[in-house]
Write a structure and sequence with these properties.
Strand content: 5-15%
Distance between the termini: 43 Å
Oligomer: single chain
CATH class of the largest domain: Alpha Beta
Strand order of the largest sheet: 3-2-1-4-5
Number of helices: 8
Order of helices and strands: EHEHEEHEEEHHHHH
Helix content: 40-55%
Number of domains: 2
Largest sheet: 5 strands, parallel
Structural class: alpha/beta
CATH topology of the largest domain: Rossmann fold
Length: about 220
């Protein structure tokens, strides 16, 4: 099975190369920029979105095809195959330079597969099919984007604020984890409260759960 280990990479400040200039290149470039990577795009025919990002100083754009040496110093690279590209040459260079490479729809020339991602603030939900059915992953991503709104990202912020308000932890980890389970029992109710703008109320309730022994907590006490 290809790509059997799912990981999240830290790309902040690291060089990333995208070889290609179409929709797929835009998608991967935007993901890299979201992670604050230093992005180099190589394509003779860039999508207008890539040109706009280059003009804004967000990335470096080289309006030509791939050349040997373009991957030197990179941490990660993508070949989208939207331009005529010597895939064997990019694979050989990536292997030699120890660059993580993903080539669109070409599993033998990939070190990894890029999952579809739904982002809500600092929450990232990834959908992967081990490189076998990327169209399905994209379809499921659109489904989740319709289902979950910005309140899910708000919940991450509120939960972190509540956690910080209850640190340092004064109980064993097992008890701490059990209190979190109680705090998140009514997830739908918490999200509904955030949609109504009741952020302070949600934080107060979560902090109450984190400060109360689980043997005195009842899951049905978490308000909707």
């Amino acid at each position: 099975m290809a790509f059997s280990l799912s990981v999240t990479l830290e790309v902040t400040g690291r060089r990333a190369v995208v070889v290609g200039g179409g929709y797929e290149a835009v998608d991967r470039t935007q993901a890299l920029l979201h992670g604050d990577a230093e992005v180099l795009v190589i394509t003779p025919d860039p999508d207008p979105a890539l040109v706009a990002l280059a003009d804004a100083g967000r990335l470096t754009l080289r309006r030509r095809g791939y050349r040997k040496g373009d991957l030197a110093g990179a941490f990660v690279a993508y070949v989208t195959r939207e331009d005529p590209t010597d895939v064997e040459a990019t694979w050989a260079e990536a292997t030699r330079e120890r660059v993580l490479l993903s080539t669109l729809d070409d599993v033998p020339h990939c070190h990894f597969a890029t999952p579809s991602v739904v982002r809500r603030g600092d929450l990232a939900m990834t959908i992967a099919t081990m490189g076998r059915a990327p169209a399905l992953a994209k379809r499921l991503r659109r489904h989740l984007e319709d289902e979950f709104g910005p309140e899910l990202g708000d919940l991450v912020d509120v939960l972190d604020d509540a956690k910080q308000g209850c640190l340092p932890r004064s109980v064993p980890f097992a008890e701490w984890a059990a209190r979190w389970e109680v705090a998140l029992t009514d997830l739908d109710g918490l999200l509904a409260a955030l949609r109504d703008g009741r952020h302070a109320e949600v934080r107060a309730e979560v902090e109450r759960c984190l400060r109360t022994p689980t043997d005195t907590l009842q899951s049905d006490e978490v308000p909707a």
